Amino acid sequence: IQKGEEQGIQLVPDLPESVEAPIAAGQETDVTFSFHNLGTTALTTPVATVTPSEGLSVSGTSSSFALSDIPAGETGSVTVRLRAGDAAAASQSVGIELRYSYDANGAPAQGTLSDRLSIPVVPKPAAVQPLIAVTRSGVSSPISPGEEFAITLTFENKGQVTVTGAAATVTPSEALNILNETSTFPLPDIAPG
Predict the structure, then answer these.
(1) What is the DSSP secondary structure assignment for residue 163, as one 8-state letter?
(2) What is the rounded CA–CA span in Å between residue 183 and residue 168?
(3) How many other β-carbons are positioned within 10 Å of the β-carbon of residue 60?
């Protein structure tokens, strides 16, 4: 934690130890940042700026928040709504910076304070790719030129998710021709197993 100690100002940010519960990807939570002025001089026109890591965003139109003046011995706070992105990784962080003015022995002065907070995120599970096994019926004897024969293709879902909206496209070798009107065949949904 960095302390602003210009001209007797002792400002300590009071950051939450952690967010109450990890934020699920795609969800929002409120985080309150409190700043305790432990010095003897009032902080005037304080502005807090929040800088989230790539997987987080600040809900709303601004990431800067004006606070009321913080008298000596008092506390100023800002509550920020954070949103975890749909593809956010498990470890995220948010930076907080407080810029303020104060009276330094009769002359105006500026000060800053910054810190960083870790925000746990529960990422969305990765998309599961189905595993499809393709088998064909056997041919009982060698095929003669000009001979017609039928082959049955079987598609078995060896994965854990149902396959929907699939189609099979059959591409024969140069020596064979498909006699069907099309070489693409829509498939019904294929459940696991």
Answers:
(1) B
(2) 8
(3) 10
